[in-house]
Write a structure and sequence with these properties.
Length: 216
């Protein structure tokens, strides 16, 4: 069952630490939410698989057309080809072959999974007016200070997802050394990134775009 939910976030202004409310409306799955999220996650992880592992069986290996010796009379074990899987340089029995692992789910189902998970992460989400716009040179210390001002623990065990509309090169370079912080554009938001994050920091412009995309 799909229902509409209104969520009110408190947007933190960086300059004076004041807060103001921001509403978005999301259609979410009330009963089958975890099932749909699970389907979307399996689809994403499967579609990342290349499926390029490949081995040659006895018919693929070059050579081996001639029988090494006659069938009877030599006292040796009978053999039909030097490319038998029993021989060195022979084919591989039941080895991996090229395979597609792609799974398809409907576009609306994928969007419903994202919206439902985003709604479920409401308590772990922090909305700010902007981040990185005033950074003229890459500076990791400055970004750490901004995140600490949001009362977010920045230790390595805490996975933080930072969602912006467009990646700023200075912001990207400032965050590159922080292994536990992932910077992502709102268009690239996905199930796996949301699930593994302990805290989500999102700019107000990115939140507006989510509202626009998923309620179009």
């Amino acid at each position: 069952m799909v229902i509409k939910h209104k969520i009110t976030y408190s947007v933190l202004t960086q300059g004076n630490n004041k807060k103001y409310p921001k509403d978005i409306v999301l259609k979410i799955s009330e009963k089958n939410g975890m099932y749909i999220i699970h389907r979307a996650l399996i689809k994403q992880l499967n579609n990342k698989r290349q499926g390029t592992a490949n081995t040659k069986n006895r018919s693929d290996v070059r050579g081996g057309g001639k029988k090494p010796w006659k069938q009877k009379g030599t006292g040796r074990a009978r053999v039909g080809s030097i490319r038998s899987p029993l021989w060195k340089g022979g084919g591989v029995i039941f080895g991996p072959k090229h395979k597609k692992y792609d799974i398809k789910i409907n576009k609306k189902e994928q969007q419903l999974a994202l919206k439902t998970l985003f709604f479920n992460k409401f308590q772990q989400t922090c909305v700010i007016d902007e981040i990185g716009q005033n950074i003229n040179t890459p500076k990791t210390k400055l970004i750490i200070e901004i995140i600490k001002n949001l009362n977010i623990d920045i230790n390595k065990k805490n996975k933080i997802l930072l969602v912006v509309v467009n990646k700023n090169s200075n912001l990207y370079l400032s965050l590159r050394n922080l292994a536990n912080i992932e910077l992502i554009e709102v268009d690239q938001l996905n199930i796996f990134a949301l699930l593994k994050s302990d805290k989500i920091i999102i700019t107000v412009n990115a939140l507006d775009k989510i509202n626009e995309i998923y309620n179009a």
